[in-house]
Amino acid sequence: MDIRHLQYFVEAARFQSFTKAAQSLYITQPTISKMIKNLEEELGVVLFERVGKKIVITDAGSILLEQAQQMVQSFGNMNSRLSELMELKVGHIRIGLPPMVGVTFFPRIIGKFREKYPKITMQLFEHGAKKVEADVGSGALDIGVILLPTNEDKFESFCFLRQDLMLVVPPSHKLASRSEVPLIELKEEPFLFFHEEFTLHDRIIAECEKLGFLPDVVFKSTQWDFISEMVAAKLGIALLPEAICRELDLERLRIIPLTSPSIPWHLAMIWRRDSYQSFATREWISFAREALQQTP
Q1: What sequence ranges are listed for the domain HTH lysR-type (predicted)?
Q2: pLDDT in tens, 44-67
């Protein structure tokens, strides 16, 4: 027995005619007669009595009809829900964003996505890139934005931004008038850092260690705007991404390119390789990829 048997049976009971039921279903009358006969043989009961050109449902048929109508309706509801899902009318996406990335790049994109797919819900989690990457890997998040490089065996990704870190100092700082500053010249400076959960924390320390010094970290924060305010208050220097530096008050701060080496800030969206992605998640990946490529 499959759902077609029940659909044909329900239509035959509704029209009390195999011919009319066949016309309603756009099949031939012998086809529906054969289906009903197969159903009767499988169940071991008579479902219809033939009275002239009409058919009359039996007591056994009435019992089956009550259940069959519910099953056919449930099957139709299931197909409708699946169609809505496949047509991206409904769904849920869990996205991890580092705080400075989310505020800079994603409000506009998320807004446009919600306009196009208002019934797809989005749950945003603000964490440093380390935790975002770990949570995507564990399945706690569907999508994440991280700082490259990442584990290409574990994640699929696309890079949407390639920038470098910039030196941020107050206008009165001795380096404020320089056109560029080598990293080694900062070895005696007090640093304002992102918290340990941020990939930049480890990356800056690693680059300093390559030059033979450990940065003197006087304060750590998870908020780039707080770090910039601390710089403006002359409490230390900071290394911030170019995109963040565009948001800073240039009357209170100076932005200087960092050299020897430059420290890359390459952002990518990641998702687990070789794992099922919902229709909504796949559409978000496609939508975000196109939107981010158009971001200046």
Answers
A1: 1-58
A2: 999 999 887 788 999 998 999 989
- CA angle 171-176-180, nearest 5°? 150
Three-state secondary structure call for residue 104: helix
Query: Element (H or E) spanning 61, and its range?
Result: helix 59-86
What CATH architecture does domain 3-86 belong to? Orthogonal Bundle (1.10)
Neighbours of 231 (CB within 10 A): 23
| CA–CA dist 224, 30 (Å, integer) | 74
Determine which of 24-28, 42-46, 57-61, 199-203 has the lowest per-residue pLDDT on average: 24-28
pTM value is 0.70
Phi, psi of 166 (to 5 degrees): -120, 150
Q: How far, in whole angstroms, is CA 171 from its chain's centroid?
A: 41
d(CA 239, CA 96): 23
